[in-house]
UniProtKB/TrEMBL annotation:
<dbReference type="InterPro" id="IPR050900">
    <property type="entry name" value="Transposase_IS3/IS150/IS904"/>
</dbReference>
<feature type="domain" description="Integrase catalytic">
    <location>
        <begin position="35"/>
        <end position="76"/>
    </location>
</feature>
<dbReference type="InterPro" id="IPR012337">
    <property type="entry name" value="RNaseH-like_sf"/>
</dbReference>
<dbReference type="InterPro" id="IPR001584">
    <property type="entry name" value="Integrase_cat-core"/>
</dbReference>
<protein>
    <recommendedName>
        <fullName>Integrase catalytic domain-containing protein</fullName>
    </recommendedName>
</protein>
<dbReference type="Pfam" id="PF00665">
    <property type="entry name" value="rve"/>
</dbReference>
<dbReference type="InterPro" id="IPR036397">
    <property type="entry name" value="RNaseH_sf"/>
</dbReference>
Length: 95
């Protein structure tokens, strides 16, 4: 790297806030069976963060595991419960 004039620039690590209270845990009712037999039997979701020019942007997505299609999503500048709740079914997927 030195011979080519390159330098390593590492980003600061993302620090998560400590939770005020413990999160609820739920039973594993799927039993790792991720292949439902019909639409709308099993939905799954995920939240990810994307670095943008002004800081961070958070994306929550809900998928129908049968069709492997997005049934809802939401984008926010805050990774809170409003983000995940608003990622529910969009008007277009209800038809």
């Amino acid at each position: 790297m030195k011979g080519m004039g390159l330098m390593s620039c590492q980003l600061k690590t993302h620090k998560y806030k400590q939770a005020d209270q413990e999160h609820k845990t739920h039973d594993n009712i799927l039993g790792r069976n991720f292949s439902p037999e019909a639409p709308n039997q099993v939905w799954t979701g995920d939240v990810t963060y994307v670095r943008i020019k002004g800081g961070w942007c958070y994306l929550a997505v809900v998928l129908d595991l049968f069709a492997r299609r997005v049934v809802g999503f939401s984008v926010s500048d805050s990774p809170d419960s409003f983000l995940t709740a608003s990622a529910g079914v969009s008007d277009e997927t209800q038809a």
